[in-house]
Amino acid sequence: MLTALAFATIAVLLALLLSNRVSAVVALISVPLAAAALAGFGPGEITGFVSAGVGGVVGTVAMFVFAILFFGVMRDAGLFDPVVERVLRFAGRDPVTIAVATVVLAMACHLDGAGATTFLITVPAMLPLYEALGMRRLLLAALAGLGAGVMNLVPWGGPTARAATTVGTGANELWTPLIPAQAVGIVAAIAVAYLLGRRERRRLAAAREGNGADTDGADAGAPEHAASEHARPRLFWVNVAITVAVVGVLIWGVLSPELVFMIGLVVALVVNYPGMRAQTDRINAHAQGAVLMASTLLAAGVFLGVMEESGMIEAMASSLTGAVPQAAGPALPLVVGALGVPMSLLFGPDAYYFAVLPVLDAVGAGFGADPDALARASLVGQETVGFPISPLTGSFFLLTGLAKVPIGAHIRFLLPWAWGVSLIMLAVAVLTGAVPAWTG
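Below the sequence we write its predicted structure tokens.
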């Protein structure tokens, strides 16, 4: 009963999110609450589930809210204007170059293994470029996510650390054999960016032709930007120093992320907009985005709390692993690797690596499968390349929120590309022996 209800809950939630029939907040709250009630849990139990889930995301919500306000204020002050102009001039207004730059920037930012940090730096930096050229924000979200995804295999990243803990092997021992696969994945992600950039360039050219615009203006240099009344060009280098300090402390980890952005916002407001009226005006200008992000993340906390505390996640894990047919047993690592990206839609990193992977190890042991091989197969896609499409991670909502794209549209757009890159990486892992194609 609980298992069937758990799968039905995930199916209904994904259907609602992918179809854009209701807002994410409505789906994330109503579906799990209805499922918990149908499962026979009482009001007190459901309240406990929700409290546990919401309590687990409060710090994340605070960080995202103040991060949105901080980067919004910095954007108002003109921090990104010179970047827009110089990169556009360098790229010749070429969507291909900008698309590739997005992936490369996301990869570089994700060297610390933190998805939130990556998206907080990449999306606000690149969004003005996309808007200046009329490029789709959906493309920005997909490329930022793809770049971060292929880098999420690093041994200090969350999935690798979780996998290493589960199988009792060092994180570096899991990661080192996957280095060739990750290197190819990096190349594949850049190739995807190049391809999608070319498509975007053709789309924009067709749109200009349809509007009767001059299609030869692509090499005319950077567009002129009207100066905003809120811009503070004289404080540009001061704002650069503030932003570098915020990001540096964030990566250093000496303070909690939410406190870093709280302090950063206070300094940014005092330096750029002294006076209560000006500061309140800038906060109000970005309050809508901050509230939307906060409400979505709190709703995600409700979903995660109900699914995990009620035992639904554990029930799904047991049933999935118990359904593996005997004939497919020797190919279990290959199957696990091939399904890693779509499985990221069903299981978050904790649920998969701490609940599903141990059961998979037990099943694989009967077929002679090495636990390390199953862990590496999982790392090729599960919450690595797949984490930017996973509604079970907080950084997913940060990515879609910062890029201002619908959740369903983002998943539909990125899923085939992320899955394709993951399968290429899996093929390399098999060829190099990191993941066996057949066991026993």
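DSSP finds 20 helices and no strands in the chain.
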